[in-house]
């Protein structure tokens, strides 16, 4: 890895592991984008920017009709002085104008990676792991400075980017848009992959060809959302799991985001991503600055599989933090689908005890333990134990569970308040709202105004009090509605459109304080399942509840789509009851186990109601998972067959040294007289011989990967196999 600057050609060459990213300062300081892709030795202008007089592409330099920003590939473009495409940023002056003109002023290249104050970001553990280029662009007329940060990782094909806007002028500036990145490709032969969805149907894979004009994804919901994940990839038409170019871009942010891909009149493609500019402005007074969230950019010349494994490795090792980052995660039993709000101390201890008997390690008490929460209409914000349900208090319950040699975890929804709560009655203006307007509710609750420091402080105190009151080792941090009437009681009028972003900054501050105060607690984020499955959350909490949909068949798509970006160790996956509570499907315990064992295994059903046989099966699953757990959670993940393409799904987990692997194959519907099934494995060492215990046979890796392996016929819908491979 190195970041170099060639003074003669004024060219920056940023190299990550096997990636090059090249920029050039041209004509009086415009910053042009030259290349992003497979690593090259040197950029020697073989593909230099071409200039031509083009109709309706005006010229910033009047005597040069061949130069227009409208045709120039750029790094951080503006709108309004000859470029008509999507801008990376837009700033309004006090005189109402939105014309700005940033030019290169200076740069520095430093070892390591700077911390982004108040925002989650990937990090380094030693300065040798990465290098950072800081490019300073200036608009002299208004005193606007923009620092563009580029960090390249030595051992990963990762470049991170962000922008820092500083008002060094004498007048107020209003940021209308500040993207984290912009890249202009010089062709349009790409397809775009996005992860769309809904509650209980998150991160479905969508792949489409690009069309002329702008195509975009965004969230306007106050969170990163179930509906669109803050991720997109551009790939070539022939890109597959293990072949072809893949450019993956993921915003490290948990709020409103926007990503756009614009194919212009000359077949060039502009990619821009950052905080959503819709319903957003940010007042920048003289001396103030604004830091955009970070964007992670991964390039793979060998397909989507390697792109995903790069994201996984970065997130597992240099985004997630804390003592649980490298620890295998406990197998848990959660009472939500077992009891919903209807439980008492005996019921909880019965489930926990049964869990212990079956080898489960952690009991999680979900929603309903506080205030007067007998349904979801009340008590959020009142983080005090409900003595009607737990008459001996939380401490006594935790002690009982811990006496069984089980860990204890607890559910919170810290960002919310119910109108029917002590907290709301005390502080009716502490929610996000707009004066004189009705407050729309979602799940009958309001969002606390985390743009206000005193609100954050009170919640930090309330949650901390509970967490200090008993030896709790796990927290599920939920968030169950999206933002409406985004306004704050204390911000001045000209800052009201900052609320959604200030809320996210407040959430990050609260999460930072609580997770730092309780480093021995494993935190799992959640937002009605996977509504906030984003890298911003993973920075504070190393795992996320993947979806409220626990049906094994639905989960094939959800977990497959999630794996495009997010590591297996971040995905909570539970075996639940049948008929499944979300889709009413009945699948075997074996298949539910295989799907849940493909993530962080947990159970979410009333264990006390299981038959003897089912309990034995759970014991077998738990024991099996304990053996394969490090491989599942920290191995390398290979997608073999996509649930979006057919009736079968297959994937595998391979240890870094390739001595061990787990293979899983799932069939959805059976057919009469069905075709023979066989699958080619991936990621193995071709020269190692692997024993597959379940088949009682051994094969070289090259045979398994090139010839493939037969999948035995099992009659019936919803069947699966999970095999363990061990090198001899
Ligand atoms: C939504 C979560 O995703 C569920 O798992 C559960 O915790 C409920 N909230 C509780 O209200």
Describe this structure in words.
This protein is α+β, with helices and mostly antiparallel strands. The chain folds into three domains: 75-318, alpha-galactosidase from lactobacil brevis (Beta-galactosidase, Chain A, domain 5), CATH 2.70.98.60; 332-634, TIM Barrel (Alpha-Beta Barrel); 648-727, Sandwich (Immunoglobulin-like), CATH 2.60.40. Strands 6, 7, 8, 9, 11, 12, 14, 15, 19 and 20 form a ten-stranded antiparallel sheet that branches. It has an eight-stranded parallel barrel with strand order 21-22-23-26-27-28-29-30, surrounded by five helices. Strands 5, 10, 13, 16, 17 and 18 form a six-stranded antiparallel sheet that branches. β7 (130-139) and β8 (144-153) form a beta hairpin. α6 (453-469) runs parallel beside α7 and α9 (552-562) packs parallel to α10. The longest helix is centred in the C-terminal third of the chain and has 23 residues, at 612-634. The model has no long low-confidence stretch (mean pLDDT 98). Bound molecules: (2R,3S,4R,5S)-2-(hydroxymethyl)piperidine-3,4,5-triol. (2R,3S,4R,5S)-2-(hydroxymethyl)piperidine-3,4,5-triol (DGJ) is lined by residues 336, 366-367, 376, 411, 478, 480, 526, 528-529, 545, 548. It catalyses: Hydrolysis of terminal, non-reducing alpha-D-galactose residues in alpha-D-galactosides, including galactose oligosaccharides, galactomannans and galactolipids. This is Alpha-galactosidase. It comes from Halalkalibacter kiskunsagensis. Residues 29-285 form the Glycosyl hydrolase family 36 N-terminal domain.
């Amino acid at each position: 890895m190195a970041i170099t600057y060639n003074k003669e050609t004024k060219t920056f060459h940023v190299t990550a592991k096997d990636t090059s990213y090249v920029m050039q300062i041209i004509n009086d300081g415009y910053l042009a984008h030259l290349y992003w892709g497979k690593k090259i030795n040197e950029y020697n202008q073989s593909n230099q920017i071409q200039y031509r007089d083009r109709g309706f592409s005006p010229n910033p330099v009047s005597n040069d009709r061949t130069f227009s920003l409208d045709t120039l590939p750029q790094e951080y473009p503006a709108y309004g002085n000859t470029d008509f495409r999507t801008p990376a940023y837009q700033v309004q002056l006090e005189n109402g104008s939105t014309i700005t003109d940033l030019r290169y002023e200076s740069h520095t290249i430093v070892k390591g990676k700077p911390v982004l104050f108040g925002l989650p970001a990937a990090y380094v553990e030693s300065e040798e792991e990465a290098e950072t280029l800081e490019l300073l662009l200036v608009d002299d007329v208004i005193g606007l400075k923009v620092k563009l940060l580029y960090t390249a990782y030595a051992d990963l094909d990762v470049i991170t980017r962000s922008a820092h806007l500083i008002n060094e002028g004498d007048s107020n500036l209003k940021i209308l848009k500040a993207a984290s990145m912009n890249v202009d490709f010089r062709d349009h032969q790409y397809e775009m992959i996005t992860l769309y969805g809904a509650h209980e149907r998150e991160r479905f894979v969508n792949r489409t060809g690009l069309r002329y004009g702008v195509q975009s994804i965004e969230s306007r919901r106050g969170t990163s959302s179930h509906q669109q994940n803050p991720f997109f990839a551009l790939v070539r038409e022939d890109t597959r799991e293990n072949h072809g170019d893949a450019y993956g871009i993921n915003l490290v942010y948990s709020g409103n985001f926007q990503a756009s891909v614009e194919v212009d009149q000359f077949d060039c493609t502009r990619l821009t991503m950052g905080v959503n500019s819709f319903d957003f402005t940010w007042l920048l007074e003289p001396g103030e600055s604004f830091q955009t969230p970070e964007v992670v950019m991964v390039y793979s010349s060998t397909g989507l599989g390697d792109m995903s494994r790069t994201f996984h490795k970065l997130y597992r090792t240099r985004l997630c933090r804390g003592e649980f980052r490298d620890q295998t995660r406990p197998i848990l039993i959660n009472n939500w689908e077992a009891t919903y709000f209807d439980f008492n101390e005996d019921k909880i201890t019965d489930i926990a005890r049964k869990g212990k008997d079956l080898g489960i390690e952690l009991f999680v008490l979900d929603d309903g333990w506080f205030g007067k929460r007998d349904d979801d209409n009340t008590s959020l914000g009142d983080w005090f134990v409900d003595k009607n349900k737990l008459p001996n208090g939380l401490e006594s319950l935790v002690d009982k569970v811990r006496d069984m040699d089980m860990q204890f975890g607890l559910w919170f929804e810290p960002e919310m308040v119910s109108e029917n709560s002590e907290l709301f009655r005390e502080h009716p203006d502490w929610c996000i709202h707009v004066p004189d307007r009705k407050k729309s509710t979602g799940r009958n609750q309001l969002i606390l105004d985390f743009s206000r420091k005193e609100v954050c402080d009170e919640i930090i105190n309330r949650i901390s009090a509970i967490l200090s009151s008993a030896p709790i080792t796990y927290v599920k941090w939920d968030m169950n509605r999206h933002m409406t009437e985004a306004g704050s009681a204390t911000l001045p009028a000209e800052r009201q459109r900052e609320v959604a972003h200030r809320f996210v900054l407040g959430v990050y501050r609260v999460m930072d304080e609580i997770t730092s105060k309780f480093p021995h607690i494993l935190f799992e984020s959640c937002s009605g399942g996977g509504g906030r499955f984003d890298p911003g959350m993973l920075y504070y909490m190393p795992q996320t509840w993947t979806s409220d949909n626990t049906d094994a068949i639905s989960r094939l798509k959800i977990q497959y789509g999630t794996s495009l970006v997010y590591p297996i160790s971040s995905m909570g996956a539970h075996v639940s009851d049948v008929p499944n509570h979300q889709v009413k499907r009945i699948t075997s315990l074996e298949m539910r186990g295989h799907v849940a064992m493909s993530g962080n295994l947990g159970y979410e059903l009333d264990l006390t109601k299981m038959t003897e046989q089912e309990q034995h099966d759970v014991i077998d699953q738990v024991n099996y998972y304990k053996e394969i757990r490090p491989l599942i959670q920290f191995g390398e993940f290979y997608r073999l067959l996509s649930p979006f393409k057919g009736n079968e799904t297959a994937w595998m987990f391979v240890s870094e040294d390739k001595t061990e692997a787990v293979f899983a194959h799932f069939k959805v519907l059976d057919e009469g007289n069905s075709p023979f099934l066989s699958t080619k494995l991936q990621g193995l060492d071709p020269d190692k011989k692997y024993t597959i215990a379940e088949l009682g046979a051994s094969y070289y890796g090259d045979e398994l990967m090139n010839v493939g392996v037969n999948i035995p016929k099992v009659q019936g819908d919803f069947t699966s196999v999970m095999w363990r491979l061990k090198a001899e």
